[in-house]
Protein 1
Amino acid sequence: MSHFGRSGPPDIRDTYSLLVLNITFRTTADDLFPLFDKYGKVVDVFIPRDRRTGDSRGFAFVRYKYQDEAQKAVEKLDGRVVDGREIMVQFAKYGPNAERMYRDDYKDRDHHRRSRSRSRGKDREGRRGRDRDYRHRSRSRSGSPDYHKDRGRGRYDDDRRSRSRSYGSASPARRSASPRRSQSPRRTPPSRGASPDAVKQKDRSPTSKSLSPRGRRADSRSRSPHSDADD
DNA sequence: GTTGAGCGTT
C-alpha cells in the first residue's frame, strides 16, 4: 500500500482523478491516501516529483473509483489543513484521463440539488493571489519575477551599455555556443569583422567600474585573493 | 535546510 505511483497507472478505466494542490513539499502519497480513502474508494494516489531533485512539487493526484465519492472528498478535504498547510482539492482537468464531470450524471444539473454550500461555508475568495489567470508562471519554482541584480552593478551597466558593452565578452562567448549550427554557407563568417572590434575592446577598463574606493577593495579580493598586499 | 503557482508516472 505504499507503492503508489511506483507501479504506474493501474487502471484508469472508470476512475476519477482529483488534483490536490497547496500541499506541503513533505506530504507523501501515503499521507494522503488514508485521508482521502476515508471519504471514498481511492484506487491510486500519485504525487509527481522532480526528476532532478526528486522533491515533491507541491501537488498530488488522488484517483477515486466513483465520482460521487470524489466529489465528496473534494468538498470535505478541500480547504482542510494538512501538515499545517491548507490543501486544495479539485477535479483534474489536464490529466491524461481527464475525467469528464459531465457524464450521464450531468443531467442532474436540473435537479434542485443546487445547495452547493460547502460544509465549511467559509469565504475562500482570499485563499491566494492567483485569482487571475496567472498561469504564465514558469514550472520552475525559481521563477521569481524579481530577478536578482548583479550585486548592484545594474545601474553602471546601463551607463556602460551606451559605450561599448557589446564589445565586452559576451560576443566571443556565444561564438562557441553553437557547435552544431554552422553559419549559413552564403553568409561570410564574421571573422573578418572581429579584428576592428578587438581594438575597441582594449579601450575598456576592467577596474574602472569601481567607483567607491571601498567597493574596489572588496572587488579586488574577489578576483585576486592573492592581492592582499595590494592594499 | 529554502520555495508556493499549478495539472500526472512505472
Protein 2
Amino acid sequence: MSEPLRPDMFDELCPSSMLPFRFGDKWAALILRCLEEGPRRYSELRVPLRRVTPKVMTRSLRALERDGLVSRTVYEGLPRRVEYGLTPLGRSMLEPLDAACAWAAEHWEELLDAREAYGNGGTPRQ
Amino acid sequence: MSEPLRPDMFDELCPSSMLPFRFGDKWAALILRCLEEGPRRYSELRVPLRRVTPKVMTRSLRALERDGLVSRTVYEGLPRRVEYGLTPLGRSMLEPLDAACAWAAEHWEELLDAREAYGNGGTPRQ
DNA sequence: CAGAATCCAGAAGGATACTG
DNA sequence: CAGTATCCTTCTGGATTCTG
C-alpha cells in the first residue's frame, strides 16, 4: 500500500526547527508527514526519525493520540506490532500544515535574510 | 486610522494555548493579530496583552523583528514613542495563521472531545 | 518489537523591582 | 513611555539503560 519511508526523509528538510511556527511539539509535524500515505509501525517511524529518542517519540505520539489526531492500534503476537495512523481529524490538520509549509517554502530566503541582517546570523533554535 | 485595541481582546479567545500549533513563541500570534489593522505603540499592545510581563513581551517583539515579521520604529521626544508594525513578510504570514485559526474554529469541539475521551480531561498546557 | 525508567541540561516563561 | 535587570520555576528535549 505505502512505500517504505526514506531514511533521509528529513535530512535536508530538517531546518524545520528554524521556522517561526510549530505544530504540536518539536517532532509532531514530521510524524504527521510520515503518516500521510497510510499507517506506519513504530519502528518504521523510527527510520526517518532516528535522531529522536524512543522516549521522546513515544511522548509525541501519545500527545497526538490524546488530541485525537493519531490512532494507535496494537496487534498482539510475537513480535509485537503497533501501528499509528491519521484519524480524520489528524488528516484535516494537514491542510493548515500544508499552508504553513507553503509559506515557509515561499519565504524561506526572506526569513534567512532577515536573520542575517538582524546581526547574529540566524542562530538556529536547534 | 485604526481603533484602539479592546482590553478583553483575548479574554475569551485565549484558549489559544491549548491549540496543537504555535506561531513563534507563546504570544507571537496574538501580537501579529494586534498589528493586523496598523502599527501600534508598545503601550497599546500592553492593553490586550496585560497578562504578559514587559520583559517577555519585549522578547517576543524582538524575535518577530529578528525574523523580519515586525518592524520597530522609534520616534524620539518626550515622552518616547515606539511603534511596531507588520512588514510585508509579517503580513504574508497572516495567511497560514488564518488557515490554522480556521481549522481550530472548525475542529475545536472534536479536539476537546478527544482530550476528554483520552482520560484526563484535557489538561491545559497553560 | 515497542516501549518504560531515570537522570540531566537548557530554554521558556513569569514575578518583582528598577531606569534612561 | 518603553523598556532592563535579577531571580526563580517549569517545561522540553535528550542520553542512557533496561524490559514485557
